[in-house]
Amino acid sequence: MAMLEIVDFGKRFTIHHLGKTMNAIQSINLSLEAGEFIGIVGKSGSGKSTILKSIYRTYLPDEGKIMYDSERFGEIDLAQVSERQMLYLRKYEIGYVSQFLSVMPRTTCRQLVTNALLEMGESEAVAFEEAEKALAHFELDPKLWDSYPNTFSGGEKLRLNIAMATVKKPRLLLLDEPTASLDQQSKIKVREIIEKLKNQGTTLVGIFHDIEFMDGLCDKVYDMQKRQLTTTKEVVSYES
């Protein structure tokens, strides 16, 4: 069976002060096998992030199913699982990288990445070593490792966010424009990690406006306008 299958997915949002309900997205169908990487492209407002947030259950779908082949629970519908099950999946199986960093205050950069591994059951020694490797890979200045991220630039926060998610080597990794505010060198580092995770069997779904970044990396591309899977060479360039 597929690692992830989205069937007739739809999501609505209610604007309460206007008393209106709007269809954000409708009739999304896509699936991917274990170890595949699907990129999602489309204009701003087309619902790309809504799909990722619904897989991660930040949003609850209004229509359809999101079937996931969990290592712990078997085949489950992420739209229907309990909060306890979803918390487990986020902790051990499903990672999410967004453009924004939301972390506990007064927790240092090094502690955040180390804690991500400790909650997976790694020993303190292994967690500490792997955290340092991840921070070094994304070229975060060692002077920042014991600083609080609220002092970081946007690019530094994004690199920390990616380090926290990828160091856990999740079975399914969701990437919501992870290179949005990064320079070219940092983008290369992100691509190296994605390729490494993919080679290790991680399944990935990602949103990228940089079509060149996706070329040769994604197995398939889902075009929001065409509502179909295609290849990077067939994708038009969308404005962000």
From TrEMBL:
GO CC term (a single one): ATP-binding cassette (ABC) transporter complex
Xref: InterPro entries: AAA+_ATPase, ABC_transporter-like_ATP-bd, CP_lyase_PhnL, ECF_ABC_transporter_ATP-bd, P-loop_NTPase
Domain ABC transporter, first and last residues per copy: 4-238
Subcellular location: Cell membrane
UniProt membrane topology term: Peripheral membrane protein
Coiled coil segments of this chain: none
Keyword tags: ATP-binding, Cell membrane, Lyase, Membrane, Nucleotide-binding, Translocase, Transport
Principal subcellular localization: membrane
Record-linked Pfam families: ABC_tran (PF00005)
Entry's Gene Ontology molecular function annotations: ATP binding; ATP hydrolysis activity; ATPase-coupled transmembrane transporter activity; lyase activity
Family stated for the protein in its record: Belongs to the ABC transporter superfamily.
NCBIfam families xref list: CP_lyasePhnL (TIGR02324)
Protein name in the entry: Phosphonate C-P lyase system protein PhnL
Source organism of the structure: Psychrobacillus soli
Lineage per the UniProt record: Bacteria, Bacillati, Bacillota, Bacilli, Bacillales
